[in-house]
Amino acid sequence: MQSTNKILMVRPSNFGFNSQTSANNAFQKEGFAEMANEKATAEFDNFTAMLKDADVEVMVINDTPEPHTPDSVFPNNWFSTHEGGTLVLYPMFAPNRRLERKEGVINFLKSNFKFKRVVDLTDFEKKEKFLEGTGSMILDRDNCIAFACRSQRTDEEVLEQFCDELEYDYLIFDACDSSGKPIYHTNVMMCVGSAIAIVCLDAVDDINQREDLIGLIEESDKTIIEISLEQMEEFAGNMLEVRGKEGQPLLVMSARAKRALTNEQVSKLEKYCKIIAPELETIENNGGGSARCMMAEIFV
Predict the structure, then answer these.
(1) Measured between alpha carbons, how far is 274 from 272 in angstroms, rounded to an integer?
(2) At residue 161, what are phi and psi to the nearest 5 degrees?
(3) Which candidate, 60, 64, 128, 58, places its Cα nearest to that of 102?
(4) For residue 53, what are the domain limits?
(5) Distance separating alpha carbons of residues 117 and 84, to the nearest angstrom
(6) Is there a domain that residue 1 lies in?
(7) Does residue 55 fall inside a structural domain?
(8) Tens digits of residue pLDDT in 134-155
C-alpha cells in the first residue's frame, strides 16, 4: 500500500532553531525563536486534532527534555516502517538529531508493533555518510521505487544499501533551489501518492535527469502535478498522502503550502484527495520542515 491510516508523531519538549542543521537547510529562518516551543506545541496539538477528526489513527509520543533534541518533532527522518514487519533506522547528519533515537520511542515501537527485523544503517554516521529516512527519500511503495536528490544528507552509498535491504530500485538526481543551493531533503520538492505525484521539476536542471524522473513517475500511471520553485520554497512540495479509517485518501500539507498553490492546482488535487492543511508557521520557520516531516507512517 502507498499510504496508511496509522501515523506516529512526537510532541515537542524543547523545540527551537537548530544551528546544527541550518548550514544546509535553506528553509530554516532565524528571528522566530521567541516562545518557539510553546507556539510549536500549540501548532502540533491543532495538527494532531485535525488528523484525528479526519479519522486518521495518530499515536503521540511526548518528547523528553533531556537529551536536548530541538528537531524531535520530525521523526520521519530517523526511522521508517514497512509492510512485512521491517523497522529501518537511519544515519543522521546533525549530532543532536542522532539523539532523537531515544530508547523510549524505540521501545514504544517494538512493544506496540511486531517487527520481524530491524535494518540499522546508523553505522554510516562513522563514515560521515547520511540518509535521513523519508526526508531524503520519496518512496513509491506500490512499485518499490525510491526517489532521492543528492545532498549532504542523502548519500548514494547508503541509499543503495537501503534499496538492497528493502528490495527497492532507486533514482537519484540533482536538485537545487532558486539560489542554486542543493535541496537538503527530497521531500520538500516532491510527494508521491497512490494516483498523483507533486513535483518541482524546475529544481532539476539536468534535462536527462528530469526526463528520467518524469518517465519513471509516468510508468507508474501517476498524474504529475507540477509546482514552481517559488511554491516549493513555501513548502508546497512537503505533502503526504494518508488515509482515514475507512480508506478515504487525504493529502496533508501546511496552510502555508496550500496558500502557495493556485486554485487550479488545488482543484486538481481535490479530485484525488481531501486536503488537510494546519497552520505550522513556527515549526516551518525554525525547523525548516513542514507537515510531511512531522508524520512517521506505520505500515506494520
Answers:
(1) 7
(2) -65, -45
(3) 64
(4) 6-297
(5) 9
(6) no
(7) yes
(8) 999 999 999 999 999 999 999 9
